[in-house]
Amino acid sequence: MSIFTTPLSQLGTSDLQELLSDGAVENARLEFKLEVPSKDETLKKLSSFANTFGGFMVVGARANSAGRIEDLPGVDVQAGYKQKVVQWCFDGASPPLTVAVSDPIPAANGKVCYVVYTAESDVAPHFLNGRKGVWVRTDEFSSRFEARLAKEDELRHLLDRRKPILDRRVSLLERARKRLDTYAARAQTTPGPRLALCFAPRFPARPLCEQERLGPLIEKNQFFWRQVMFPILNRGVISQHESAIILQPTGVFSIAEANIWGMLFYATQIDGNHGGTLGIHPYQVAGYVLVFIRHATELLQELGYSGLIVITGILTSVLKAQWLDPRGGMGFHLKMGSELDDEVEFSLVITAEALRETPDRIAADLLRYIFFSVNWPDVVDRTERLEALVTWGHKFNR
Description:
Helix content: 25-40%
Number of helices: 10
Strand order of the largest sheet: 15-16-17-18-12-21-24
Strand content: 25-35%
Largest sheet: 7 strands, antiparallel
């Protein structure tokens, strides 16, 4: 049947009529719906497909008690149906379901049919929010997965499906950190305290682009920053396995990496000479956080990524590092930072939409982690202080 092989964007009335002529029967990958299903029913059916073998839901098709299609009476045109279903699947399941919805397909008497498809998911199991459980597909039925009735191999298979994807995210970050360490070992001077931010899809199941796109993508997405362009491309773009890398994108010891899985990694030295005083300037740190967020946002948009993002922050070589407090007026007050930790790692899970729409709030959340980690809580312990720090970060970036 062509419904299984034709892209949804190309499905037409003849493809649905083929279901009739073939006497198609509901099965593990096919469901018929006479009326437009509710949000809950839609999520149960689609999540059961995603958690099993993938499948198609045909809306506007009548089936008999045995599940065999009898007619295609269609339904009324649903305004914004495609966007509605996509939003339901994003908000109603964890992790979100990835679905495709056809355009209205003409049926009889001015009615239409819709076909909704979801593939077998690499990041299953998908839980329905609101404690509605995990749904799976058995033959033509969608049913709630009952752990107490399952055999060990069934449980292990369901829960282990996303493990390779999560392992990939960890290994991508480890590889980026190893490359940073290799670069640091080659540096003529030992880099001081460093800040790294990694932006990665929570479930990097599939490559987002071909490797040959990465270099041009980075070169295209430069923007004005501190009287130069970020990232600074004086040393060109280096091609490494699955990645494009820039050395010294901030002008000091630093690195920026983009890879085909959608992971973006930035690291930079954060101490320096500020008017003759050596140390780490908090406004400069805030500026780096903001510029990394902006660049990551633009690249993820170019890559077409929409979904959950894990931001991992890493502070390195910060034990007893000297910080500069500019808040006292003339000159700096010197402040010793971390008393016990030389390296700190933290993470934040957000959506790509939040990164795009509320970058200052994301920056504030990251800065809270950073300054509480280095024993300087009174910079970020109040909303107004956090907002002021973000504002100074923007001023640093001009």
